[in-house]
Structures are given as C-alpha cells and as structure tokens.
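User: Sequence recovery, please. Input:
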C-alpha cells in the first residue's frame, strides 16, 4: 500500500510561480516513476510531467519550458516547480507513482487545487 500526499497548491496571478510537493509513504520496495497529472472541470486528465528513477523526463506540450519536475528519492518526494503560470493552468493537480511503469498511474494522491486568476 502506498499513500501520496500533495501540498503547495493555491491561488496565484498570471505570470506567478508555485511549487508543488508530493511525498509517498507506505509499504513499497521501490518507485520507478513519479509524476504529476492535472484535470480541469469538463476536461480529460492530462500529463503534466513525469520523472523516472533513471532521470528520464517527459512533459506535456503545454507546460514544456515553464514547469520543472524533480525528485528526492531518499525522501520519496517529487516536486513540481511551476513558473510563468497561465489561467489555462488552472486545474486539480494529482501526484501519481508507478512501481514499474514509465507513466505512473499505480497510485494517486487526493489532488491539490491550482488556480491562476487574472
């Protein structure tokens, strides 16, 4: 069993920055991939960023160049630094991990709201 707890969401003006954190806990031998997905009302959940234990990243097209994902394996924590935020970044952001897979999805956090208001 794995529990994921996100923090760092909130309200920010366009052009501002936020830093999200997600810490994993529970019984697990290893985590290959940690990442972030987001979902806005009426829209499908989409990839924001993932990072494998080998250092391989993948970013959604809409956030490439603005967001940076990182992880601290000792702390089992993944971070998402979000810069130059836009109103269209408004969504619930979900942390997710995969034990063996490349694109997370085995376990999910409760989500944290990010609102970019003009």
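Assistant: Recovered sequence (118 residues):
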């Amino acid at each position: 069993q794995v529990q994921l707890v996100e923090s760092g969401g909130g309200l920010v003006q366009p052009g501002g920055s936020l830093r999200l954190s997600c810490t994993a806990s529970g019984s697990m031998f290893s985590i290959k991939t940690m990442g972030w997905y987001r979902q806005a009302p009426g829209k499908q959940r989409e990839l924001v960023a993932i990072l494998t234990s080998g250092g391989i990243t993948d970013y959604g097209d809409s956030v490439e160049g603005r967001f940076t994902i990182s992880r601290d394996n000792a702390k089992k924590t993944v971070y998402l630094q979000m810069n130059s935020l836009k109103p269209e970044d408004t969504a619930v952001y979900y942390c997710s991990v995969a034990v063996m897979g490349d694109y997370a999805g085995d376990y999910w956090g409760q989500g944290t709201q990010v609102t970019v208001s003009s």
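The first strand starts at residue 2 and ends at 7.
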